[in-house]
Amino acid sequence: MAESTLKSVLFALYGAFSSFVVLEQMEYEKFLEIRSTMCIKHEFVTEGKMMSSPAIHYKGKVFAFYSRTNNMVFRLGKEYPVDKLDMEMTEFSPFKSKKPLSGWYEVGFGQHHHWDNLTQVALTEIMRAS
User: Fold this and answer.
1) What is the CATH number of the domain that holds 67?
2) What is the pLDDT of residues 23-37, one digit of tens each?
3) pLDDT score of 85
4) How would you classify residue 91: left for phi > 0, otherwise alpha for psi between -120 and 50, otherwise beta?
5) Less CB within 10 Å around the terminal CB: N or C of the chain?
6) Is residue 12 part of a domain?
7) To which H or E segment does residue 123 belong?
8) Predicted confidence band of residue 50 (pLDDT cuts 50, 70, 90)
9) CA distances (Å), 24 to each of 32, 42, 69, 120, in order?
């Protein structure tokens, strides 16, 4: 009896883990799709890294990247009216003992339908500042 219970628990854990892996893969594939499209459409947009994570650069400067927590992070700027957006986002805070990075915002996969637009907004902001 105990063996069948253990098998049931292991099967349930495997199912939950494999679902998580599939979701994580979907998140990363969405990022790769956005990055590829941006690199094709815009002359100075390239692939790169930000804190060892895959990123999107404009003339060598990062404006969006895929975080270790499987979210996209966007450099929208300090003045961007994020409070007016109808979506969940948080200030990006990668350090435990430091304040969040000013002007950087993290958006989870639950809001992935906004990722394309936010990437374009971040690109526009960095182009304007350059």
Assistant:
1) 3.30.1460
2) 578 899 999 999 999
3) 86
4) beta
5) N
6) no
7) helix 115-129
8) very high
9) 13, 27, 9, 23
Q: In whole numbers, what is the pLDDT of the chain averaged over residues?
A: 86
Instruction: Specify the pLDDT at position 86.
Output: 87
- Name the phi and psi angles at 36, rounded to 5: -60, -45
Note down the domain range covering 114: 30-129
Q: How far is CA 103 from the centre of its chain?
A: 15
Domain total of the chain: 1
Can you read off the two tokens belonging to residue 72?
């996209």
What pLDDT, on the 0 to 100 scale, is given for residue 96? Answer: 87
Q: Is residue 13 part of a domain?
A: no
Whole-number Å distance between alpha carbons of 106 and 21: 21
